[in-house]
């Protein structure tokens, strides 16, 4: 994988962190070297079951729909639910490895869906049937593809399907992610944004520049 831009935010400036949710650890565009350097300072790390075995330590691995609680700094708990995901078409899903998404929820807290690198519209539909509506949907885009994998077929969800899933989720706010910074991302932020505006979700779409911090008002 070829990185085309450096980090938008210096890793050390993110500290202290209460926890980290890692959709998968085995692809460097999701956990790069600077991200790995932070892990020893993060008290709570949640990822896939296979990823937890690789990362070791106190990392907690979750299977699909398994849940865990994260204590919040000001009291209360954040419920983290692992959601299924498939990183590419059936023919290559086994080789791209185990990936998950997340649902964050809790008493008095907004519900936040994180898609992860899910390619499958069927999985997106199944998730929506279980968790909709959500307050926030963080949708991964980028049109990721490699020439050597299925003749360059997309291995992340096509932008048109991302719009469909966001509608199924009845998401009040939509945040784009996973669209910039790597050569295998063949569709950038503007193309992802245009798909949501053309799909009638412009009012819900949160315009966010690369590295911009977003304060959500729920």
UniProtKB/TrEMBL annotation:
Assigned keywords, A-Z: Hydrolase
Domain Metallo-beta-lactamase, residue spans: 8-178
GO MF assignments: hydrolase activity
Taxonomic superkingdom: Bacteria
PANTHER family found in the cross-reference section: L-ASCORBATE-6-PHOSPHATE LACTONASE ULAG-RELATED, UPF0173 METAL-DEPENDENT HYDROLASE MJ1163-RELATED
The name this protein goes by in its record: MBL fold metallo-hydrolase
Species name: Leucobacter ruminantium
């Amino acid at each position: 994988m070829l990185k085309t831009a450096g980090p938008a935010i210096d890793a050390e400036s993110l500290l202290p962190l209460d926890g980290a949710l890692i959709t998968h650890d085995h692809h460097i565009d999701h956990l790069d070297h600077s991200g790995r350097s932070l892990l020893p300072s993060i008290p709570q790390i949640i990822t896939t079951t296979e990823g937890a075995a690789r990362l070791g330590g106190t990392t907690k691995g979750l299977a699909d729909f398994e849940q865990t609680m994260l204590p919040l700094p000001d009291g209360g708990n954040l419920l983290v639910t692992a959601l299924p995901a498939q990183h590419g078409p059936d023919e290559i899903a086994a080789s791209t490895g185990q990936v998950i998404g997340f649902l964050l929820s809790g008493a008095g807290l907004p519900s936040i869906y994180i898609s992860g690198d899910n390619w499958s519209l069927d999985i997106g539909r199944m998730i929506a049937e279980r968790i909709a509506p959500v307050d926030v949907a963080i949708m991964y885009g980028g049109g990721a593809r490699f020439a050597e994998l299925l003749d360059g077929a997309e291995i992340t969800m096509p932008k048109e399907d991302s719009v469909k899933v966001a509608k199924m989720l009845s998401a009040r706010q939509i945040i784009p992610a996973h669209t910039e910074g790597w050569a295998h991302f063949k569709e950038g932020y503007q193309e992802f944004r245009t798909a949501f505006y053309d799909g009638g979700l412009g009012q819900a779409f949160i315009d966010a520049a690369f590295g911009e911090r977003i304060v959500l008002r729920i």
